[in-house]
Amino acid sequence: MRTALVIGTGLIGTSIALALAGRGVQVYLRDEDADQARTAAALGAGADKEPDGPVELAVVAVPPAYAAEALAAAQRAGVARGYIDVASVKGGPRRALEEAGGDLTSYIGTHPMAGSERSGPLAATADLFEGRPWVLTPTPVTDTEVLNLALELVALCRAVPVVMDADAHDRAVALVSHTPQLVSSLVAARLQHADETAVRLCGQGIRDVTRIAASDPAMWIDILSANPGPVADVLSEVAADLDGTVKALRALEAADAAGTAGVEDVLRRGNAGRDRVPGKHGAAPAEYEIVTVLISDEPGQLGRVFADAGRAGVNIEDVRIEHATGQQAGRMQLMVEPQAAPALTAALRERGWALRQ
Ligand SMILES: NC(=O)c1ccc[n+]([C@@H]2O[C@H](COP(=O)([O-])OP(=O)(O)OC[C@H]3O[C@@H](n4cnc5c(N)ncnc54)[C@H](O)[C@@H]3O)[C@@H](O)[C@H]2O)c1
Ligand SMILES: O=C(O)C(=O)C[C@]1(C(=O)O)C=C[C@@H](O)C=C1
């Protein structure tokens, strides 16, 4: 990729721009607030001016409620060959873009699973996405060249691409991102009117649990408004656990030893859940089988693998690319349900791909 336009130069847009600019991409910066674009440019994220002609990729990094509108406007102006957004929800923006008459062939909804409780370009860092999952939600109509541009952006940001359906993404982030945000806010809210003598004792535990409670409410109202059902589903399960834990504690308060089991149950289930949280370079879920494809450093290779897998009727659950030094891509690991692996292996072999163990 040689050129990109970042629309919305806050935390995420500027972090992407810094990563791209650091790897030699000519980045143009645009924000409805010119001061934000100027700040991003001063940080070395690119040039706060309009490109002379269309760039290869436009990255829309504005709040979720404005993403479809900004994408449709950019497409109407023909500013790029491909368009992505990075909003924390994926189903809503895509449907809104379709309703706004946007072009779904040149668009991919994406979501980097990295961020901060801070906003704006001054919170941005070039290495924010390194080793983090970056969800891509292509559809059957997505242009292969655009998918390749998005994958190249993810590789340039040193993130790990994960291909998912948009609605499945929204259900997953309800569990791993949106509910945790609310639970963090709920715990922190207890401190608002707490006695100073208690607040003075805050240690690392509460700092860990409440870091994201400092996030921008306006951004989160947008995110939660676009994913209310799945978040309410997870939160009601948390509420049931809370109810059970309160009852167990009341039993203990009444010197009923039976309460211990209830408290122990939630603590042990918490240990088990915590054990499943992947490290930064997260391990593949054990239930998937990995099909490894050798990819040469040529344009269009990644997109063709996805297209061939799609033609074989195989759903790719996850994808990783091992980069060989000096190359865009080397070994591509496709993670699929075990029963789909033989069909995928056969289809890829038939189409001439070299597979590795
Ligand atoms: N913050 C996170 O942790 C995180 C992580 C992953 C994805 N995201 C997503 O990334 C997007 C940006 O979030 P952020 O944290 O960078 O927010 P931010 O508030 O730091 O930056 C948003 C920027 O967009 C600009 N903007 C708003 N409307 C615009 C428009 N119509 N045209 C041009 N610029 C516009 C604002 O002026 C601001 O500079 C959101 O969609 C969010 O859901 C956020
Ligand atoms: O680390 C943080 O500050 C975040 O909350 C980042 C986080 C997350 O939940 O992991 C928050 C929202 C985004 O959409 C993606 C990432």
CATH H-level superfamily title of the largest domain: NAD(P)-binding Rossmann-like Domain
Question: In CATH terms, what is the fold-level topology of the largest domain?
Answer: Rossmann fold
CATH hierarchy class name of the largest domain? Alpha Beta
Helical residue percent band: 40-55%
Bound small molecules, deduplicated = nicotinamide-adenine-dinucleotide, prephenic acid
Percentage of β-strand residues: 15-25%
What's the shape? globular
The span between the termini is: 30 Å
Helix tally equals 13
- Estimated radius of gyration: 22 Å
In total, how many beta strands? 11
Across the major sheet, the strand order is 2-1-3-4-5-6-7
Class computed from helices, strands and strand pairing: alpha/beta
Per CATH, the architecture of the largest domain is 3-Layer(aba) Sandwich
Q: What's the number of structural domains?
A: 3
**Largest sheet descriptor:** 7 strands, mixed
Low-confidence stretches: none
Assembly context of the chains: single chain
Q: Keywords, please?
A:
357 residues, Alpha-Beta Plaits, binds prephenic acid, 7-stranded mixed beta sheet, single chain, alpha/beta, 3 domains, binds nicotinamide-adenine-dinucleotide, Rossmann fold, 6-phosphogluconate dehydrogenase C-terminal fold, 11 strands
How would you characterize this protein structure?
The chain is an alpha/beta fold. The chain has 3 domains: 163 residues, 3-Layer(aba) Sandwich (Rossmann fold), CATH 3.40.50; 106 residues, 6-phosphogluconate dehydrogenase C-terminal fold; 68 residues, Alpha-Beta Plaits, CATH 3.30.70. It is 46% helix and 16% strand. The protein has 13 helices and 11 strands. The strands form 2 sheets. Strands 2-1-3-4-5-6-7 form a 7-stranded mixed sheet, with helices on both faces. Strands 9-10-8-11 form a 4-stranded antiparallel sheet, covered by helices on one side. Strand 4, helix 4 and strand 5 form a beta-alpha-beta unit. Helix 10 packs antiparallel against helix 11. The protein is globular, with a radius of gyration of 22 Å. The chain starts with a strand and ends with a strand. Bound molecules: nicotinamide-adenine-dinucleotide and prephenic acid. Prephenic acid (PRE) binds next to loops. Nicotinamide-adenine-dinucleotide binds next to helix 1, helix 3, strand 5 and helix 9.
